[in-house]
Each structure stands twice: as C-alpha cells, then as structure tokens.
C-alpha cells in the first residue's frame, strides 16, 4: 500500500507482466500510480525501460464519466536487471 515512488515503479513494471498488454492511465491510477505519465517518463529516462504511449481514447470511468484522450501504454522493452517477466 506504499505510495513511495519506488513502489509505484514496481507497480508499473508488474502491470506489464503479460506481453502485448495495453495499460491505460485510469488502470494505473486504480493500482495506486497517481501520475502515470510521470512515472513512465522517469522509468524510460532514468531506468532504461522503453514504455510507449501507443494510443489515446475516450474512456468511461467507473462512475460513468467520459474522459477524453486517456493514454494507453505498452511495454516495448525492460532493462536487463528488471525483476519483471
């Protein structure tokens, strides 16, 4: 239940344990990653990940509200030392 940056990095990494899976900004927020684009940018620049924004769509949230331009991310590559799949 940690909100530490390192814990958020781990949740982002684990979200991509299934190859080809697209993860949205709203999916990451449900996992406790409150600023997914920032975490993805940091992981790409500082940690050697290659996580791409592959789409933007309108998504309806759990309460029925539409959110335009929600980003969808795909893991392209992990650094060799990463603990994920």
Describe this structure in words.
- It is a single chain.
- Helices cover 34% and strands 31% of the residues.
- The protein has 85 residues and is of the alpha+beta class.
- Strands 1-3-2 form a three-stranded antiparallel beta sheet.
- It is globular, with a radius of gyration of 13 Å.
- The two termini are 22 Å apart.
- The mean pLDDT is 93.
Keywords:
single chain, 85 residues, alpha+beta, three-stranded antiparallel beta sheet, 3 helices, globular
List the helices and strands and how they pair.
Elements (H helix, E strand, L loop, with lengths): L4 H11 L6 E3 H6 L5 H12 L2 E11 L5 E12 L8
Helix pairs in contact: 1-3
Strand order of the largest sheet: 1-3-2
Overall spatial form: globular
Mean pLDDT score: 93
Structural class: alpha+beta
> Which range best describes the helical content: under 10%, 10-25%, 25-40%, 40-55%, 55-70% or over 70%?
25-40%
Order of helices and strands: HEHHEE
| Parts with pLDDT < 50 across at least 5 consecutive residues | none
Give a summary of the structure in a few sentences:
The chain has helices at residues 5-15, 25-30, 36-47; strands spanning 22-24, 50-60, 66-77. With 85 residues, the protein is of the alpha+beta class. It has a 3-stranded antiparallel beta sheet with strand order 1-3-2.
